[in-house]
Design a protein that fits this description.
Elements (H helix, E strand, L loop, with lengths): L8 H19 L5 E3 L6 H5 L32 H10 L7 E3 L4 H15 L14 E6 L3 H9 L3 E8 L2 E2 L1 H10 L3 E6 L13 H8 L9 E5 L18 H7 L6 E6 L11 E4 L2 H14 L5 H11 L2 H30 L5 E3 L8 E5 L4 H10 L2 E3 L16 E4 L6 H30 L1
Parallel strand pairs: 1-12, 3-4, 3-6, 6-7, 7-8
Antiparallel strand pairs: 2-9, 4-5, 8-9, 10-11, 11-13
Bound molecules: 4'-deoxy-4'-aminopyridoxal-5'-phosphate.
4'-deoxy-4'-aminopyridoxal-5'-phosphate (PMP) binds next to helix 4.
Length: about 425
């Protein structure tokens, strides 16, 4: 089929009629599929079930340094859990604090603490006229929700194929003292699956912030989440790079086992410089006596070491890879050559980022929802839910059963075609 932009009004109208019939037929299938969030599917949850057998009433819950994990104690995590998570995110155990079940929670806490108490003795952000954050776009909606909740002004930074536009990042960070942070998902980014290049990581490490309390919020959520064993993407370790660049305190690095073991019931951590750790622990010691050590122990005894996690992630990849491939195949078969959309082909992570013609994303998501396929809301990948082009849609292939995914994507591509035809018809009308 030829590109839509080369079609006459009559050809477009004829095609629209045909596609509308197909859409009506698909609505009759009464689909009910959720592709809105990056949730692991049931088979993925099942592969971690043996973790439930690791501890029982006869287990010895003493950790390596003799601490009884059933009781209070240990603010920053069991030594063996710090070693395991440290190996996972390539950071020495002494640079880590293990928290509870959620890395997003740690990010929220970091912003909240900066608001009320400042960063390492600097003025609390709540006492400033304005605080700004840089937001590479498209990005993760829950990051943007946190900064919006605290009234922090968000500035869009376009993503390139190797990470955020660093010319812009450097300009804002070095010139504007109100810029206090940037959200980054540096590996298999949410939603584009982009891994930051060495050049980009080095430029982050060498930033010269106008604000001494500027921090890079380095959310390493997908560090282990490769889809292909022979095409793994890797990234320079940012804490090491920032230390080398004479900027040791500039990074907070976050991670969790949410999409490794059980989402919402994993182990989460922050890694950062010794100075930042001291600052954070002042708050932490007030906030809690200690996090869930039994869960930390369960994770360590189940995975044993980093090789256990690597082997486990291969099982996840074996389930996820065919799903990603199904989505990409349908996109290529149905939309290839029509010049009405573009999409990323990630090598890891949880999402496929899709762009419609400008002004079509909302309509596509609404149409798909009416026919029973729930997608992430259009606009969600931008601060304030406002995609200036109304074009980006985040596709999450993990959750629906493999057998339904093809149908869901056929419906999705149908919705993209219909919205694009309408866009072209409007443009022709405007020209006439
Ligand atoms: N960061 C990113 C980039 C994510 O995509 C997700 C999960 N969708 C999270 C954080 C949430 O992590 P956690 O469960 O550890 O809070």
């Amino acid at each position: 089929m030829k590109p839509y932009k080369e079609m006459s009004r009559e050809e477009l109208l004829e095609l629209k009629d045909e596609l509308k019939k197909q859409y009506k037929m698909m609505r009759g299938l009464n689909l009910s599929l959720d592709m809105s969030r990056g949730k692991p599917c049931i088979e993925q949850l099942d592969i971690s079930m043996e973790m439930m057998d690791i501890l029982n009433s006869s287990s010895d819950l003493t950790c390596e340094d003799g601490m009884d994990c059933r009781n209070y104690g240990v603010l920053d995590g069991l030594p063996e859990a710090k070693k395991l998570i440290g190996d996972m995110i390539e950071v020495p155990a002494e640079n880590l604090i293990i928290y509870g079940n959620s890395s997003l929670n740690i990010m929220y806490d970091a912003i909240s603490r900066s608001m009320t108490h400042g960063v390492m003795g600097s003025t609390p952000w709540c006492c400033l006229d304005k605080v700004k954050f840089l937001c590479p776009v498209p990005g993760y909606d829950r990051h943007f929700a946190i900064t919006e909740y605290f009234g922090i002004e968000m500035i869009n930074i376009p993503m390139t194929d190797e990470g955020p536009d660093m010319d812009l990042v450097e300009k804002y960070v070095s010139e504007d003292e109100m810029v206090k942070g940037i959200w980054c998902v540096p590996k298999y980014s949410n939603p584009q699956g982009i891994t930051y290049s060495d050049r980009v990581v080095k430029r982050f490490a060498r930033l010269k912030p106008a604000a001494k309390d500027f921090r890079i919020y380095w959310d390493n959520a997908y560090s282990m989440h490769h889809l292909y064993e022979d095409e793994q993407e890797n990234i320079l370790e940012i804490l090491e790079e920032s230390k080398k660049a004479g900027n040791p305190d500039i990074v907070y690095k976050f991670s969790s086992t949410s999409k490794i073991s059980f989402p919402g019931s994993g182990v989460a951590a922050i890694a950062t410089s010794p100075n930042n750790l001291v600052d954070i622990k002042k708050q932490l010691a007030i906030q809690t006596i200690g996090h869930d050590k039994v869960n930390q122990l369960r994770h360590v005894r189940y995975y044993k070491d980093i090789n256990g996690i690597i082997a486990h992630m291969k099982k996840h990849a074996d389930i996820l890879r065919p799903k990603f491939e199904t989505v990409l195949e349908v996109l290529e078969t149905e939309l290839g050559g029509l010049e009405i959309a573009s999409w990323h082909k990630p090598k890891g992570g949880y999402f496929i980022s899709f762009d419609t013609l400008n002004g079509c994303a909302k309509e596509v998501v609404e149409r798909a929802q009416k026919a029973g396929v729930k997608l992430t809301s259009a606009g969600a990948t931008y601060p304030y839910g406002k995609d200036p082009n109304d074009s980006n849609i985040r596709i999450a292939p993990s959750f629906p059963p493999a057998k339904d995914l093809k149908t869901a994507m056929e419906l999705f591509t149908l919705c993209v075609k219909l919205a694009s035809i309408e866009r072209y018809l409007t443009m022709l009308e405007e020209k006439a």
